[in-house]
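Regression test case RT-17, inverse folding.

Input:
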């Protein structure tokens, strides 16, 4: 849970300082990755994402994203994630703040190890991601990007939710 608290604190600090920083314009190919923490099934764990895409306009970015949460404890690992096609929308004139949504696939995997025996169970379904973030310009083409995401997963008729807070780097 310390990771989630640290990530949430960093996100709040960055978002309050961000308006004072000059923002750039979006153009062409972009790629980003980040790490942080989150909560699934009332359990804290680590989180990460990788996304990339193109820029049809300064306010719209289209791409794909793999985003996941993982927790390991007592020789058992549980992970939940989505692989989605995403739209990032930048409503403001400076292009810093964005809203994100994506549709695609969801997966839940549980792995347990006892001695030399490892058992893995995976189930897949429908996934959607909703999020918000802020691109803070660090250099000519690189941005610090804090994010907050909500993953909704429908797997085997059950709906799961995962809340993630991450901080990453994005190249435009």
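Golden output:
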């Amino acid at each position: 849970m310390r990771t989630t608290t640290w990530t949430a604190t960093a996100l709040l600090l960055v978002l309050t300082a961000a308006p004072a920083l000059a923002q750039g314009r979006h153009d062409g190919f972009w790629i980003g990755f980040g790490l942080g923490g989150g909560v699934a099934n009332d359990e804290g764990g680590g989180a990460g994402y990788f996304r990339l895409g193109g820029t049809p306009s300064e306010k719209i970015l289209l791409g794909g994203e793999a985003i996941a949460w993982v927790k390991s404890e007592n020789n058992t690992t549980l992970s939940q994630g989505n692989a989605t096609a995403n739209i990032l929308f930048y409503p403001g004139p400076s292009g810093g703040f964005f809203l994100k949504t994506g549709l695609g696939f969801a997966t839940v995997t549980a792995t347990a190890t006892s001695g030399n025996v490892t058992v893995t169970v995976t189930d897949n379904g429908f996934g959607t991601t909703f999020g918000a973030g802020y691109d803070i310009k660090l250099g000519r083409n690189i941005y610090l990007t804090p994010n907050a995401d909500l993953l909704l997963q429908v797997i085997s008729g059950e709906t799961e939710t995962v809340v993630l807070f991450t901080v990453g780097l994005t190249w435009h």
